[in-house]
Amino acid sequence: MKPDNLEKRIKKVIVIFMFLFSIFTVLVLGFFFYFDKDLPSVENLRNYKFFTITKIYSEEGEVIGEFFIEKREIVPLLKVPKHLIYAFIAGEDARFFEHKGLDYIAIIRALIKNLFSGDIVQGGSTITQQVVKSILLSSERSLIRKIKEAILAYRIESYLTKEEILYLYLNQIYLGHGVYGVAMASKEYFGKDVENLNLAESALLAGLPQAPSKYSPYQHPEHAKRRQIYILARMFEEGFISYSELIKALQTTLIFKSKPNPYLGKAPYFVEYVKKYLEERYGKDALYKNGLQVYTTINMKFQNAAQEALESGLREIEKRQRYIDTDSNSLEGALICLELDTAHIKAMVGGRDFKRSQFNRVTKARRKTGSAFKPIIYASAIDKGYTASTIILDSPIVFDWGGKRWMPKNFEERYFGPTTLRNALSYSLNTVTVRIAKDIGLEYIKEYAKKLGIESPLNKDLSMALGSSSMSLFELTKAYAVFANKGKVFNPIFIKKIIDRDGNIIEENSQINEGQEAISPQTAYIMTYLLEGVVQNGTGWRAKALGRPVAGKTGTTDNFLDAWFIGYTPEYVTGVWVGFDEEKSIGEGETGARAASPIWVKFMQEILKDKPVKDFPVPEGVVFIKVDPKTGKISSSNDAILECFKEGEVPSKKRVF
């Protein structure tokens, strides 16, 4: 062949090669730009916000609840043991510190090993690719996703350091049983902080990413052990550990933490109450993803005492009534305790078993209150000119409504004739209460109840005076708190402070109860003084067992469907309700005094046992005068009692209804 022909042919081949190379380059660039246009940015990874756990704390700082989509705690790389890092690298990406996002050697090696083993024992994806898949892309299995993953892995390697990539990976990786990241996995599997993990434990965790369910030590301990051995062997092969370290780790016995939710029984109804508030105010993303730190007012000593008192009291009733307890036919109860100085909720028990029923009977159950509503009637009367010594006739009375007759009756149908307002409240006389309500007017009582914080609708007839309207235990207990709180509006606080994931305080509530005045301090104190009489001489007599000043009132509805006791000391106001969720009698004779008061007493004895005895503070503007307990007239006899009046008022000699 002539030299000039050879030269022409070489030139022709070069031209063809350049043409094909140009086409290939255009196709590659086009291919790249096609996939590049929809790729997420890697620039936010340096400040990436992981989904983290919202934690609910008690007053003492104890965790009582957690909410999350991904159960994770963030740990800086400096706190992660070197052997744990090397365990993950050995198992997932041995050439991590050498490649630029893609490891072609590892892909080929993994393919060969998996073919020979007949199982997936080694993956080809690098740690960087796994970061891309878990943070920037979906876990969809497709060629397009793998191409995007490769492009992004290369970009990440150019933008972040290897240490920054490891930080993202070790905090993001899913490790089974709803657990994400090595810090939380360490606590969930071994009950310890990540910095305290030994080599054997680290190797087990490093074996989980490949198939968290398959290698779960809880579900498949044999598979988990084999995977751990594989990780340790890879660490030895790569020179991360010595032979003696390998043998020691293989001989180390692993002790796993039990799986039950440790927070379920601590204060479940209260935690659910907090959860609802957080979700409504801050949204689901903040609650489940943003790792809020919520510091509440609940006191676990009080909470435990409340749960124990309620369960003990309900069992006593069941024993008396010889109940057969079933899931669908269980006697229930509820208790709420509020601290007067701070308005803090100190205990909340919405039922006897949260696992069986999540219905919160403190806040959601609307029940007839019976005589527990009467203090609102009597407080209304005090502000309408009645005094504790006003005489009202206690005798049968009949009302005609729309062609129907209603005849309210006292308990056991006993009547006392002319009776002081004090005695009528102490002995919970129905006819006297109805006469007072008729005199002062139902509309006035309704408005008065609103001032005390009653928001539930009240019946439009005189039966309302005897507690025929339905309301929650929380609502009625708050109303009593106004009497105990010197007449000020009582707005319970259940959250002290909320801190966001960056340490910023996003909500903080005052620890001083400074409500506006709902009723006068004088009226509030007179009601407290009268309710002390209910305890000393009337239906609330069981509360005398506290051996300190107590004010309170029982409540019982028709056929013993509901039993109530709401009472307070100078420090705390506590409400108790007992009954069935469906309308069913608790049992003959199971009044508020018999069924609810013992629970209240047991709880209050426990929380007050180490506290000094206090008296209710007396405001200015009230005077004490000795009166005859039967006639209400001023008296200096030996039988006279010390009665409380507003300044300028004298015992009534005329008012008889």
Describe the structure.
By secondary structure, this protein is of the alpha+beta class. Helix content is 40%, strand content 14%. The protein is built from 20 helices and 20 strands. The protein has a five-stranded mixed sheet with strand order 2-1-5-14-15. Strands 7-6-18-17-16 form a five-stranded antiparallel sheet, sandwiched between helices. Strand 6 and strand 7 (345-349) form a beta hairpin. Helix 2 runs parallel beside helix 8, helix 8 crosses helix 9 and helix 14 (374-382) crosses helix 19. The longest helix is centred in the first third of the chain and has 34 residues, at 3-36. It is elongated. The relative contact order is 0.09. Residues 653-657 have low confidence and may be disordered.
Offer a few descriptive terms.
657 residues, five-stranded mixed β-sheet, five-stranded antiparallel β-sheet, 20 helices, disordered C terminus
Question: How do the helices and strands line up, and which of them pair or pack?
Answer:
Layout: H1 3-36, E1 54-57, E2 63-67, E3 71-72, H2 82-92, H3 104-117, H4 127-136, H5 143-159, H6 162-172, E4 179-180, H7 182-190, H8 199-206, H9 221-237, H10 243-251, H11 268-282, H12 284-289, E5 293-296, H13 300-321, E6 332-339, E7 345-349, E8 367-368, H14 374-382, E9 391-394, E10 399-401, E11 404-406, E12 417-420, H15 421-426, H16 430-440, H17 442-451, E13 470-471, H18 473-484, E14 495-499, E15 505-508, H19 521-537, E16 551-556, E17 562-568, E18 572-579, H20 592-608, E19 622-627, E20 641-646
Parallel strand pairs: 1-5, 3-4
Antiparallel strand pairs: 1-2, 5-14, 6-7, 6-18, 8-13, 9-12, 10-11, 14-15, 16-17, 17-18, 19-20
Helix pairs in contact: 2-8, 2-9, 4-5, 4-6, 8-9, 9-10, 13-20, 14-16, 14-19
